[in-house]
Amino acid sequence: METRALDSYKIEVKSIPIQVHIYTQQGQPVPFYYLSVLNISKETKSIIERIREDIITGLSFELTKKKEKRDEEKEIKEHFRKKLKETIKSQFSGIDEKTDEIITNYVLITSLGLAEIEFMLKDPNLEEVVVNGAKRPVWVYHKEYGWLKTNISFDDEKKIRHFSTLIGRQVDKGISILDPLLDAHLESGDRVNATLSPITTDGNTLTIRKFAKTPWTITKFLQNGTIDYSSAALLWQAMQYELSVIIAGGTGSGKTSFLNVASNFLPPNQRIISIEDTRELKLPKTLHWVPMQSRLPNPEGKGEITMLDCMINTLRMRPDRIIVGEIRREKEIEVMFEAMHTGHSVYSTFHASNVEEAIARLTNPPINLPKQLLSSVGLIVVQHRNRQTGIRKTFQIAEIMKDGSPNLLLQYDLMNDRMEQSNPPTRMINMLKLYTGMSQDQIYNDLQEKITVLRWLVKNEVTDINKIGMIMSDYYTEKDALLSRTG
């Protein structure tokens, strides 16, 4: 069959060289992601596999006996490393230290870790790694090429279940036939969802969404065209003057990334409390930030701390700003909107494809939020991902009027690839006039000043989140001096 190369690059995982080839094959509906590990002969690889099989049997028994005690697990793994090194040196006489370390790390990862999944998790070009059961190959979602089928597969459902158990144990969560669904995260912050057969009828599954090691910033969003300068300045103005913002969008549209970006605009002299199921947000060090995280119950059903518990407690912590990772349940939404209604600025994400759908979902069963409470929201921002291209864009920005209806301010024009103004802001302008004393001209001048600073950030490639935090701090405390530098 005819093949065509799309891309090729190298990554390194604990000194192990990894080669990635991406190619299309005639007659196949999706491209392939080919992972090549260890540039060694078949004979050498066969010896390594035999060493791995010989040692892992005894170790698995020891780990099973002591699975509740992490310190002992760590001790056993160190013992395994030493034993492994001795065996390698006896099998490969005259082996140099670098090769010894590479082979040792390879055996450790493929025996005690998540096997080849760990190599894929280190590829910065991937967003998602998915195991769909032992009968199928692993799939990955590539930032440039979308969904790709890989050359990696696992020949046993027990192995996939073992991965799920291993991940759950790291965060004190279990998965079993009686409790076959798992939401967890890796130590790296990557989010994991696992299911067991027969809930997923073709086998056990793993879905790992990679945590961005380098957080998204407003500069990066502007550089890659996710948002334009006018939209970013409008968002900044809303954030500065304490209007609450809901970020809506479908799965994978970049809602949480956008929430992280929006947090770049928060002032340093206010207390910010964030609530998440799994820690994903990363805010500048300049901010007065207290992150909170919900917790599932233990196997005995005790110790659960829900998002609602965190939200109620947050209101007792004198917050100036509240960030809620994602709102899903009716009671959480009620408490969040009550917080807005009593004067707290709240920022959160919500599943909806557009502004009209977001309002319909919030005001109809099962949520049934009264429209009077909906008017507490300043802006609704909609993020969209084109499933054909994988490109993410800010799709709509709307203000919410007093009666709870939307006034669409900006709409992305797909044909011309730009944001177009639909209607001028009215309620937002009136609120800023009322609470800041600015005239309409001053409000628009304020937006232009913000655009100037944003252009300067992009021109000077200021992408580090903490450096952006310092620029924002200067804006709020030494604005004239900052504008003289950036203007």
Structural Rg: 26 Å
- Under CATH, the topology of the domain at 218-486 can be stated as Rossmann fold
Please give the share of residues in helix. 25-40%
How much is the average pLDDT?
90
Share of β-strand residues? 15-25%
How far the N terminus sits from the C terminus, by CA atoms, comes to: 58 Å
pLDDT under 50 segments (min length 5)? none
User: Class by helix and strand content?
Assistant: alpha/beta
CATH superfamily of the domain at 218-486: P-loop containing nucleotide triphosphate hydrolases
Look at the structure and give the CATH class of the domain at 218-486: Alpha Beta
Which overall shape is indicated by the principal axes computed on the Cα atoms? globular
Q: How many strand elements?
A: 18
CATH architecture of the domain at 218-486: 3-Layer(aba) Sandwich
Total helical elements: 16
Strand sequence of the main sheet, in spatial order?
1-2-3-6-5-4-9-8-7
Q: How does the major sheet shape up?
A: 9 strands, mixed
Question: What key phrases describe this protein's structure?
Answer:
single chain, 487 residues, alpha/beta, Rossmann fold, 9-stranded mixed sheet, 16 helices, 39% helix, globular
